[in-house]
Design goal:
36% of the residues lie in helices and 22% in strands. The protein is an alpha+beta fold. Among the domains are: 4-184 and 390-408, 2-Layer Sandwich (Nucleotidyltransferase, domain 5), CATH 3.30.420.40; 249-330, no CATH class. Strand 2 and strand 3 form a beta hairpin. The protein has 16 helices and 22 strands.
């Protein structure tokens, strides 16, 4: 009888599910599709859950996100950042998590409800076959042992019999070891790589090494936590504040919250797609243009831009569209780019083995989609090979499925009992200093930023950086 592998990635920001028959050798697999508020389908959905006070799951993913934006959450429990709170907020996995209304619930019960919901996404026609469930835990957790045990316990409580739990970076590494993914520039014989995870709230660098078949060693080097997307969003908002005034823009946000959320989503799309040398087009929200329009001055927005510090880098089309210059848009990313380069450089400097030859750098996480950030890494480390997958979030669940396929090869007709061992001492987390430069504002002639500027910024910080406390001893996590 065929054995199927069902992968579940409940990430800090996004969730995805995928499956395939373990005997199939190709990288192709089936996945669950989620429909967003615009009617478009995606292979991932936001990790947001809404439950009743009786702990009945009301909605999850895009449906929950829409329900929140429509403010239809009276007498309900909303959880929008619970994975980070459960797995990454302390030295151990949290037994309880707080909803946005202050209600405290059991972490195990919440996760059980979510995994039971995700189980319904597995095709009914395949449920007669034996299934190996492969789940992931966040790579930024400080307690890999506890996180894996907790997730396995929750999965079995949700109804999964045969469960394997692995860290996210192991799943990514497994996916990128596929012959169809490896590039000519990468060395297939080299069993070690660096995984740079770039999320909205953190940047983390891990070294993953394949010790032998079905065995990986994960070394955690550096971790920088900050609200990186929040920093980009704040810098973006400062543009509007400088043009329209703080009071006008704050009133607009308060009175047009849903429209403002669409503006932020448009910014996120531009972050992912914009290249370094391209102008960025932002359509002004109707609520904002209505707030500043004046019958006596039909070009009031153009006039406001000309009188601001952005006169040379922003133009207005038809009083409804902003055209932002590439230099100004890149300045939104200044701190994020410098942090990425610094974290990666510290990782490379910490290992003599990594300094030898070309290293494969795999980008994952939400912000890894950003082309500007991708180019920053390629430019800062030209002697190394950078892997950028089509979907840095979905690659985690793909790797989880492939890892499960690798583990189940040679299995008997009955489902094998899989044993694995995770050993991890205390990890070394290093908080990186912030860039001294502002991302936007001031004289526009002095805000132009290039990859050279980012690299110089990191070099200068090396001279002034305070001595880091704590040991740089490597943390090993063996998945057998």
């Amino acid at each position: 009888m065929a054995l199927f592998v069902f992968g579940m990635h409940v990430g800090i920001e996004y969730t995805a599910c995928a499956w395939k028959e373990s005997s199939r050798n190709s990288c192709e697999l089936s996945s669950c599709l989620w429909r967003n508020s615009s009617g478009l389908e995606s292979t991932e959905t936001p990790t947001i859950a809404i439950l009743t006070f009786d702990m009945i799951l009301e909605s999850f993913g895009y449906e929950a996100d829409t329900q929140i934006h429509e403010n239809n959450i009276d007498k309900l429990l909303v959880f929008s950042d619970f994975i980070r709170k459960i797995f990454c907020d302390g030295p151990t996995v949290k037994n309880e998590v707080i909803a946005e209304n202050g209600q405290i619930v059991s972490s195990e019960e919440l996760m059980t409800k979510i995994l039971q919901f995700l189980l319904t996404k597995y095709p009914q026609s395949l449920q007669e076959y034996p299934i190996l469930y492969v789940l992931t835990v966040p790579s930024t957790t400080k307690d890999q042992v506890g996180a894996c045990k907790f997730m396995e316990q929750v999965a079995k409580k949700a109804g999964m019999e045969n469960v394997l739990v692995i860290p996210e970076e192991v799943a990514v590494f497994r996916f990128c070891r596929e012959p169809s993914i490896l590039s000519k520039e990468s060395d297939p014989k080299r069993t070690q790589c660096i995984i740079l995870e770039c999320n909205d709230e953190s940047i983390k660098c891990s070294v993953v090494e394949e010790i032998k078949e079905k065995s990986f060693q994960v070394t955690y080097e550096y971790f920088s936590q900050n609200s990186f997307f929040g920093e980009i969003q704040k810098n973006f908002e400062n543009i509007f504040v400088n043009i329209f005034g703080k009071g006008v823009f704050e009133d607009y946000i308060r009175e047009n919250r849903l429209e403002y959320n669409h503006l932020v989503n448009d910014l996120r799309r531009k972050i992912y797609l914009t290249q370094e040398n391209r102008n960025v087009i932002i359509r002004l929200p109707i609520g904002l243009t209505d707030a500043v329009n004046n019958v006596d001055d039909k070009e009031i927005i153009t006039s406001a831009i000309r009188q601001s510090v952005y006169a040379n880098c922003i133009s207005c089309v038809n009083q409804s569209i902003l055209r932002i210059s590439p230099d100004l848009f890149q300045n939104l990313f200044l701190k994020v780019r410098a942090n990425m380069v610094e974290v990666l450089q510290d990782c490379l400097n910490s290992s003599r083995q990594l300094k030898m030859g070309t290293v494969t750098i795999i980008l994952m996480g939400n912000l890894a989609r950003c082309r500007i950030l991708q180019d920053t890494i390629k430019y800062a480390f030209p002697s190394h090979y950078t892997v950028v997958t089509d979907d840095p979030n979905f690659v985690v669940v793909k790797g989880a499925v492939l890892f499960g396929q690798m583990q189940s090869k040679g299995a008997d007709k009955d489902m094998p009992v899989l044993e694995y061992n995770v050993s991890s001492p205390a990890q070394c987390f290093v908080e990186h200093t912030e860039c001294r430069q502002n991302a936007v504002g001031g004289d526009t002639n002095s805000t132009t930023t290039s990859n050279d500027d980012v690299t110089k910024e990191v070099d200068n910080k090396d001279d002034n950086k305070e001595k880091k406390t704590g040991s740089k001893s490597k943390t090993k996590c063996n998945i057998l």
